[in-house]
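Posting here for the record, re: adenosine-5'-diphosphate.
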Amino acid sequence: MQAVACPSCQHWNPAADAWCARCSAPLGRAPADNADAGRATQPLAPPKELALGAVLGAGRYRISGLLGSGAAGDVYRAEDLRLLRQVALKVMHLHVLAQVNGRARALQEATALALIDHPHVVRIFDRFDEEGRLVLVLELVSGGNLADRMAQRRVPPNDAYVLLHEIALGLSALHAASLVHRDVKPANVLLSARGVAKLADLGVAQDGRARRITRLGARFGTPEYMAPEQHRGEDVDARTDVYAAGVLAYELFAGQLPFVRASEHDLAVAHIGEAPDLAPVVAAAGPECAEVVRRALAKLPEERWPGGASLASAWAVAAQRAGHAVARQPNTPLDDGPLGPAPAPAVVAPRADGIGIDVLTGPRAGQRLAFEGGRLSIGRRDDELGSALGRVEFDDPAMSWAHCTFVLQPDGRVVVYDDGALNGTWIDGVRVHGGAWVPAGAVVAAGRTRLAVAA
Ligand SMILES: Nc1ncnc2c1ncn2[C@@H]1O[C@H](COP(=O)(O)OP(=O)(O)O)[C@@H](O)[C@H]1O
Ligand SMILES: [Mg+2]
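Prediction output follows.
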């Protein structure tokens, strides 16, 4: 049998295959375009690595190391010589740019990322061309990717909840911008030096409004994480990302994938028709967690969590029920920042049940709101949008319909999560990204309303 080397990772594949079994890169041109044309049957030279010290971008960026490689590009650490900071440069592989729509797709990754400003999505600063190659200038996320982290050692359940919650929040930002990531997997989740998760690689993301920029019939995604509809080549939406995040959650808790099969075809059959065995997740993390995974892995999209925001809330609730927290210590910077000693956690004595949230301003001023099942969500009353179960509504035009959620932790502390509120949720004038502890006496601002943990 003739074998063909993957142009991206050099893995040997059967000559009849169109995609690399290891890294999913196209093996030369896809058969729909021109079967076998341009495919090497000799080992290829490795993609030319940029030399250490090379300066790109008209003298602006000096390469100082290789951070990682994927099917679409090599990512280098570099110094921005103009702004004197470290950045990541994603240098697209030439063979990717040469594909039908390859350059358009690579440009789409840049414009999609530019739409998003979120602490759990990697930021893009700029893009430029270097000898025919497209280069993206990205925020440097220096703690490696989650796949490497998982390969090193098992992630403890508490950290897993924090990461899954952050990944879901990152997805909620994409979904709010009508984007579908389509390739959620550990290698596309980056970790900051402090271990904060940031979604990367929007290389195959789809803009729900612009519709197909990708070639019809081409497969995008990674088979182990692909939802049934993605395996069938049908339309995808936010719920497709929820499924992939469910596979990632399964893997994080159970230490193994829900479906392991020898071929892509068998994987598709399993994802489309076989029920995942949730026993390893129950054993590792308990039934609350397994229930979130089960719903994320539903075969029918309508039976899954509808998008990143609801998945994030589901993780917050499951973590709380299982005695974990999804929030990091207060004031933990979400980006790398200068590395100093972590602030000592505030010691708060466990409080009696019946703790609530006091409303300090507005028509509800003076009311004490109670937690139900450890949660308390607040939002603006809107007769058109209707009311959501278990939510306290405010006549506050500056509040978002779903503004924020307070979650009572087992130790009596209260964490507030911003539910994607338009003008944010603030604790003593500091904006909450994701979730943060509410210290005793602090004032939480949601719209024009001020709230505090009942003393
Ligand atoms: N902004 C970044 N900071 C640090 N490392 C990165 C960054 N972006 C990507 N990487 C590293 O490079 C790898 C490949 O990047 P990715 O964007 O996923 O490329 P591809 O589209 O080729 O899969 C990632 O798994 C990660 O290890
Ligand atoms: Mg990738």
